[in-house]
Amino acid sequence: MTPSSDLDLEDWLDSRANSYDIYVLGFQEIVPLNARNVLGPRNSCISTKWNSLIGEALNKRRRKGAVLHQEITNTSATERPAQEEHFRCIMSKQMVGIFMSVWVISNLRPYIHHLNVSCVGSGIMGYLGNKGSVSIRFVLHETSFCFVCCHLASGGKQGDVLLRNFDAADILMRTRFPGGANQELPKKILDHDQVVLLGDLNYRISLEEAETRLLVEDKNWSILLESDQLLIEFSTGRHFDGWQEGLITFSPTYKYHPNSDQYYWCFDGALGKKKRAPAWCDRILWRGKGLKQIQYDTCNYRLSDHRPVRAVFHAECVIRGDADCACGCIALSSSSE
Fold first, then answer.
1. Would you say residue 332 has pLDDT above 70?
2. Do the strands 22-28 and 322-336 form a parallel or antiparallel pair, or are they unpaired?
3. How far apart are CA 18 and CA 119, in angstroms?
4. Helices (H) and strands (E) in the chain, counts
5. What are the C-alpha distances in Å from 237 to residues 19, 232, 244?
6. Averaged over 311-329, what is the pLDDT?
7. Cell inner membrane: is it a keyword of this entry (predicted)?
8. Of 149, 157, 251, 301, which is least packed with CB atoms within 10 Å of its CB?
9. CA 193 to centroid of chain Cα atoms
10. What is the separation, in whole angstroms, between the first and last Cα of the chain?
């Protein structure tokens, strides 16, 4: 979906009242997953538009502050410091519909090194990019970070959860980063000090559709979550061993009627149209020492049939030659178009 030019992302990024050191945004299906987009050349127009809107939202308050400072001090533009703090995109990558963009505050950029990206297609024939992941890693001071934006197998039929489990395991196995000249850099996702996985993981609720709808109408999230497929995988220990997720207190993120707060099943669709039961398809998982989640919620942007989820983390970074740690905040957001 192409975002409108006047789309304001400040509420989504929480940049009006707060400012974090690093922002990571992940999108799924920013282009339709048709044969032309899956097999043809990459269409980067939409991802470029998203980056423009992200940069505008993150730096808007800083531009206003700079103008106010100029008015108060009566200084000209040429007299202002040449290096004002601002956010800049250090890496963005698109694979078909999956898109991830990483932004950092400018005074942090000199301490970021070994920036790499790795893409894994797990869609048609197990390799095409209609499903899969985009992973971006970097080292901040002496601490390695890896962010993984995923779009796993869809479907609410019995057995589809196995396809999602396979996709997740396949992404962890096939994602590779260069080891560097000294061969001490982490090469796999799980080798990094701190890892965050976000995206449309597509896990559903293992209840009959009618029962799911009744529980959603009653907003009985605790009972629904007992049958959440991803949480069941956590509890059995078969998959996602060592991963963590914050407490879910928000409504299911899928499937909404376009430009509405009503779930899709609240409307009488056209004949033959699928009516999918609500589910928490969009998730943010994390692992690693020194990473602490301090916020996990969703925001009411009616951009698609999903609601974007977001999280804020407090991260500790080891500084060379210093036993202390540098602490900062990372804001993560995921949206499926």
1. yes
2. parallel
3. 32
4. 7, 11
5. 36, 9, 12
6. 76
7. no
8. 157
9. 19
10. 6
Q: Which residues pair with 133 in a beta bridge?
A: 120, 150
The tokens 């070994």 sit on which residue?
Answer: 114
Amino acid present at 217: E
What pLDDT, in 10s, does the model give residues 188-212?
Answer: 999 999 999 999 999 999 999 889 9
> Does the pLDDT at position 106 exceed 60?
yes
β-sheet with 132-140: strand ranges across = 112-121, 132-140, 143-151, 194-200, 282-287
Compute and round to an integer the Cα radius of gyration of the chain.
Answer: 21
Spatial CA neighbour of 122 closest among 38, 228, 190? 38
DSSP assignment string, 258-282 = TTSSSBGGGS-PPTT---PPPB--E
Stretch (H or E) spanning 188: none
DSSP output for 75-119: --GGGS-S----EEEEEEEEETTEEEEEEEEGGGGGGEEEEEEEE
Q: Where are the domains of the chain?
A: 10-106+204-336
Higher pLDDT, 41 or 13: 13
Given the candidates 3.30.1330.10, 3.40.50.11290, 3.20.20.70, 3.60.10.10, the CATH classification of the domain at 10-106+204-336 is 3.60.10.10
Pairing of strands 87-95, 132-140: unpaired
Q: What is the pLDDT of residues 270-308, one digit of tens each?
A: 444 556 789 999 999 999 999 999 999 998 888 889 999
Taking the C-alpha atoms of residue 224 and residue 207, their distance in angstroms, rounded to an integer, is 8
- The number of beta carbons lying within 10 Å of the beta carbon of residue 332 is 25
CA nearest to 199, candidates 293, 104, 291, 100: 100
Tokens of 46: 């939409």
Hunting for tokens 């030019």 — which residue is that?
A: 5
**CA triplet 32, 126, 133: central angle to 5 degrees?**
60
Half-sphere exposure of 326 (CA within 13 A, CB side): 15
